[in-house]
Design brief:
With 212 residues, the protein is α/β, with parallel strands linked by helices. It is built from six helices and seven strands.
Length: 212
């Protein structure tokens, strides 16, 4: 893993790709306003469904002085292949070579992303006063219990079939203007309660007080 960024008060946003910028196509969803592009190199060829409005929103966040980094299983390809194909500004990779295998037990998406949780935890420990936001569709209820709600961490959990939607983008934009204002799923307005998607993975039995 690359070293966590030097101590700074500059707001920091970690951005995932799959399920966040890239929407996983669902036949029950409407994709008006989305585009599809093919990204390829000697190893990867994939069709990417995404909203150009998300790319523009992240570019505006960067212009406001927020440090945006990829935190994704794509590793170095997020910067060299994916970002340029979709028109993102040149964003640094938080991790160039994500670890494969190991980590937490359990047949779940969350167990594959254990290293992200550890990376974010270490960053919070190193810079407890730095405003941070993590956007990832694989953030689980277990992770939220593990952190016990760090006051400087905001997070958004998009619906993987849509990626960042209109209300998510509004929340990110507002946070970039006032990073001291904490953003979490229940503060993303415009959705009915059933759409506040904190997804629970089968890594442990549910407990009283868990988010639903």
């Amino acid at each position: 893993m690359t070293a966590i960024s030097k101590l700074s008060t500059r707001p920091l946003l970690w951005l995932d790709i799959d399920g966040v910028v890239r929407a996983w196509r669902d036949t029950q969803c409407s994709y008006r306003g989305y585009k599809e592009v093919t990204v390829s190199d000697d190893v990867i060829t994939q069709n990417i469904l995404y909203r150009p409005a998300v790319v523009r929103a992240i570019a505006q966040v960067v212009k406001r002085g927020v440090e945006v980094r990829w935190l994704t299983m794509w590793g170095s390809a997020s910067r060299s292949l994916f970002g340029p194909a979709l028109g993102f500004p040149d964003l640094v990779n938080a991790v160039d070579s994500p670890p494969r295998g190991g980590g937490e037990p359990g047949p779940s998406v969350a167990s594959l992303c254990w290293w992200k949780k550890e990376f974010v935890r270490e960053a919070l420990k190193a810079e407890p006063n730095r405003p941070m936001m993590w956007i990832d569709d694989s953030i689980s209820v277990d992770m939220l219990h593990f952190w016990s709600g760090p006051p400087n961490l905001s997070y958004i959990i998009p619906d993987e079939s849509l990626g960042l939607d209109r209300w998510d983008v509004i929340a990110v934009s507002r946070w970039s203007r006032n990073p001291s204002r904490q953003v979490r799923p229940d503060s993303v307005r415009g959705r009915v309660p059933g759409e506040l998607r904190v997804r629970s993975y089968p890594t442990r039995p549910a407990r009283d007080g868990d988010a639903s």
